């Protein structure tokens, strides 16, 4: 166990880390990729460019430092991240690599401020945090529906809107069961890209008779053009093989609360539609508020129609003409358990609006399409 003296050293460095957190992790990533270029096959290079991932790691390290007297408090956060790590095949042997370069990043950015005492305390504490992740991930590897990445055949490719495509993929070799709200992870190697690339996509329906369905939005423009989403849109057709790792993720309907409110924006409807399908099948009362840009950008019409037939109360609001969903749309649903999914901007807007209405955090469950920790209060 880490000594009280070392804990004090870590606590004392929190303000410095807060000031330099993103800078340290950015330096750390640059140095780590230089020493271990093979990791470029695992990390999302588009996230690196736009800075999301460095921020997420910084927030997690900070959360851990703030909870040094009670490391258990970070376990709920670790679970969501560990699901992503498991889906990406992050293994125990990767942790010392991250630890070494993280400490060197602290050293490089803080210079003389990072005394040997500080580096030593953080080294020991990093190992403890890493062990929490490794232990949680070990159980997830054991529980996964299949090992590693398995080939699936593309059975359907359906354009939902000009920029969202829905794939149905199938395999006879694996058990396709999953919990509504989970995602699969796709591994591709586009011809004009020097690495393998991995991305998570939420499974968008509970119905698996034809296979697993997931939807992909074409991401970015020019410099930030999404490598994988554009490849899947333009380069993958019916009959092609796609490699998937087993379903992962902890976004799910917690209990059968009876009355549920699902809120989603754009392609964020994907996990929430599967959750709503499951909740209705279990007899819950389901209300679904959906924000789309306009009629042209209204995806999943067939699934929304089915949900309505099955008993869901669905309202679609077009943000272009009517604005975002807001407290007027939420009024009357204050007692429902709430599940939200959408872009980071959408999530921030919804969480703030619901918070200002006085709805407790514990009743708001969410899954942003982006690193969750950058929305988390730590
Ligand atoms: C994702 C933290 C170790 C590879 C993440 C995320 C966080 C995080 C917060 C974002 C999760 C989200 O999207 O919500 C940590 C911490 C670690 C650690 C605190 C050490 C204790 C590792 C290791 C590897 C790794 C050892 C592999 C070398 C990744 C990858 C992603 C990720 C590839 C996906 C995001 C991307 O590709 O940009 N991690 N991680 N992590 N982590 Fe870790």
Automatic annotation (TrEMBL):
Write out the entry's keywords from A to Z: Heme, Iron, Metal-binding, NAD, NADP, Oxygen transport, Transport
Q: In what residue span(s) does the FAD-binding FR-type domain sit?
A: 147-254
What's its catalytic activity? Answer: 2 nitric oxide + NADPH + 2 O2 = 2 nitrate + NADP(+) + H(+); 2 nitric oxide + NADH + 2 O2 = 2 nitrate + NAD(+) + H(+)
Which EC number(s) are documented for this chain? 1.14.12.17
**According to the UniProt record, what class of enzyme is this?**
oxidoreductase
- List the molecular function annotations (GO) for this entry: FAD binding; heme binding; metal ion binding; nitric oxide dioxygenase NAD(P)H activity; oxygen binding; oxygen carrier activity
Q: Which residue ranges does the record assign to the Globin domain?
A: 1-138
Question: Where on the tree of life does the source sit, at the highest rank?
Answer: Bacteria
- Report the InterPro entries cross-referenced here: Cbr1-like_FAD-bd_dom, FAD-bd_FR_type, FNR_nucleotide-bd, Globin, Globin-like_sf, Globin/Proto, OxRdtase_FAD/NAD-bd, Riboflavin_synthase-like_b-brl
May I ask which residue range the UniProt record assigns to the signal sequence? none
The biological process GO terms on file are:
cellular response to nitrosative stress; nitric oxide catabolic process
What this protein needs as a cofactor is: heme b
Recorded hits in CDD domains, A to Z, give: flavohem_like_fad_nad_binding, Yhb1-globin-like
The record's family statement is: Belongs to the globin family. In the C-terminal section; belongs to the flavoprotein pyridine nucleotide cytochrome reductase family.
Q: Which PANTHER family match?
A: FLAVOHEMOPROTEIN
Q: What is this protein called?
A: nitric oxide dioxygenase
Look up and give the organism this protein is from: Salinicoccus hispanicus
């Amino acid at each position: 166990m880490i000594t009280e003296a070392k804990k004090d050293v870590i606590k004392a460095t929190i303000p410095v880390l807060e000031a330099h957190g993103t800078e340290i992790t950015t330096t750390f990533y640059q140095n780590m990729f230089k020493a271990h270029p093979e990791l470029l096959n695992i990390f999302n290079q588009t996230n690196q460019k736009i800075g999301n991932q460095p921020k997420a790691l910084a927030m997690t390290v900070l959360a851990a430092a703030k909870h040094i007297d009670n490391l258990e408090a970070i376990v709920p956060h670790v679970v969501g991240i560990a699901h992503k790590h498991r889906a990406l095949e992050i293994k125990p042997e990767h942790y010392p690599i991250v630890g070494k370069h993280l400490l060197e990043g602290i050293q490089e950015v803080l210079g003389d401020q990072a005394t040997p005492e500080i580096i030593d305390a953080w080294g020991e504490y990093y190992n403890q945090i890493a062990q929490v992740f490794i232990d949680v991930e070990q159980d997830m590897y054991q529980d996964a529906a299949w090992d590693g990445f398995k080939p699936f055949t593309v059975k359907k490719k359906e354009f939902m809107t000009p920029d969202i495509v829905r794939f149905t993929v199938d395999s006879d070799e694996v058990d396709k069961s999953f919990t509504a709200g989970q995602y699969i992870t796709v591994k591709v190697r586009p011809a004009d890209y020097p690495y393998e690339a991995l991305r998570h996509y939420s499974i968008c329906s509970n119905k698996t008779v034809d296979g697993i369905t997931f939807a992909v939005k074409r991401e970015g423009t020019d410099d930030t053009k999404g490598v994988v989403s554009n490849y899947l849109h333009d380069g993958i057709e019916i009959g092609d093989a796609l490699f998937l790792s087993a379903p992962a993720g902890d976004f799910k309907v917690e209990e059968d609360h009876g009355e549920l409110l699902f809120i989603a924006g754009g392609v964020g409807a994907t996990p929430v539609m599967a959750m709503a399908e499951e909740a209705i099948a279990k007899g819950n009362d389901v209300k679904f508020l959906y924000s789309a840009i306009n009629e042209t950008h209204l995806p999943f019409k067939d699934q929304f129609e089915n949900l309505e037939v099955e008993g869901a109360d669905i309202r679609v609001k077009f943000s272009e003409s009517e604005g975002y969903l807001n407290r007027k749309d939420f009024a009357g649903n204050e007692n429902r358990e709430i599940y939200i999914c959408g872009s980071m901007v959408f999530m921030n807007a919804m969480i703030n609006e619901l918070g200002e209405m006085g709805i407790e955090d514990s009743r708001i469950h969410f899954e942003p399409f982006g690193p969750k920790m950058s929305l988390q209060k730590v």
